[in-house]
Amino acid sequence: MMFGLILLVFVAIYMYNSGNTGGSCCTNHQSQGHTSLDILNDRYARGEINREDYLERKQELYGQKQPISIKKG
């Protein structure tokens, strides 16, 4: 009985310490600091937005709202 209690305490301490090291996937992912342009590039690469939308949104991010010319062919 006493062995089980001691084992439980050690497991609890281990779980507490492993959660505070910053080594979890979610903490590291958020600390990378994705910019708006990174997110836009990812969405375009995944095919979530087309080229015209991508270029328009990219220009808006840079504050260069200009007409877009798209070459077809």
Write up what this structure looks like:
By secondary structure, this protein is an all-alpha fold. The protein has a domain at 34-65. The chain is built from four helices and no strands. It has helices at residues 2-19, 25-31, 36-45, 51-62. Helix 3 packs antiparallel against helix 4 (51-62). The longest helix has 18 residues, at 2-19. The chain starts with a helix and ends in an 11-residue tail after the last helix. The model is unreliable at 27-31 (pLDDT under 50).
Number of strands: 0
Give the fraction of residues assigned to helices.
55-70%
Shape: rod-shaped
pLDDT < 50 stretches: 27-31
Which sequence of SSEs, written as H and E, runs from N to C?
HHHH
Cα gyration radius (Å): 24 Å
Q: What are the key terms here?
A:
single chain, 73 residues, mainly alpha
Offer a quick outline of the entry:
With 73 residues, this protein is an all-alpha fold. It contains four helices and no strands.
SSE layout and pairings?
Elements: H1 2-19, H2 25-31, H3 36-45, H4 51-62
Helix pairs in contact: 3-4
